Amino acid sequence: MNSPAIRSVTFDSPEGTSEFAACLGELMAPGDVVLLSGPVGAGKSHFARSLIQTHLKRSGCFVEDVPSPTFTLVQTYHSGETEIWHADLYRLTHTDEVEELGLMDAFDTAICLVEWPDRLGDLAPSNALSLTLEPEDVDVFPERRVMTLTWQDPKWTTILEAALRKAHA
């Protein structure tokens, strides 16, 4: 197996993070999975919300509120022909619960955004993009986030280069 590719990007504001999420969302297709990690308050749900709303808007769908699925565990959205799953696995205690949610099938057929992916254990798809958000120095830069992107599937190299280029244009 190939070594994972890694790239770090710093965003000075929530708007910068949103812009990148929007650009990434425009390039995603069914079967694409993003695993969102980071501490509470790092911006995982903010990132997912921006990506989902942009995808809905681009597809000409009603752009609805996108709440964090902390208590519902999974929220689904229909974007034209594409289904988007936003999962928050924080409250899960065993990988059997992941299978009960239907996530394994969604990984193949939908765009999936998964917060707290450590709860997936060995069920995490090998072709997923792992995205970790970390506050840089909250005392000096309270809104700055460092995003570390890790992937093995070569398709993400092309997608990320295009999304970063567009976000910084």
Task: Explain the layout of strands and helices.
Blueprint: E1 5-11, H1 14-27, E2 33-37, H2 44-58, E3 74-79, E4 82-88, H3 95-101, H4 103-109, E5 111-115, E6 129-137, E7 141-151, H5 155-167
Parallel strand pairs: 2-5, 2-6, 4-5
Antiparallel strand pairs: 1-7, 3-4, 6-7
Helix pairs in contact: 1-2, 1-5
Description:
The protein is of the alpha/beta class and 169 residues long. It has one domain (5-118, 143-167): 3-Layer(aba) Sandwich (Rossmann fold). It is 33% helix and 30% strand. The chain is built from 5 helices and 7 strands. Strands 1-7-6-2-5-4-3 form a 7-stranded mixed beta sheet, with helices on both faces. A hairpin with a 3-residue loop joins strand 6 (129-137) and strand 7. Pfam families: TsaE. It is found in: Cytoplasm. InterPro entries: T6A_TsaE (IPR003442).
CATH topology: Rossmann fold
Q: Which parts are unreliable, with pLDDT below 50 for 5 consecutive residues or more?
A: none
The tally of structural domains comes to 1
| Strand and helix order | EHEHEEHHEEEH
Strand content: 25-35%
Distance between the termini: 34 Å
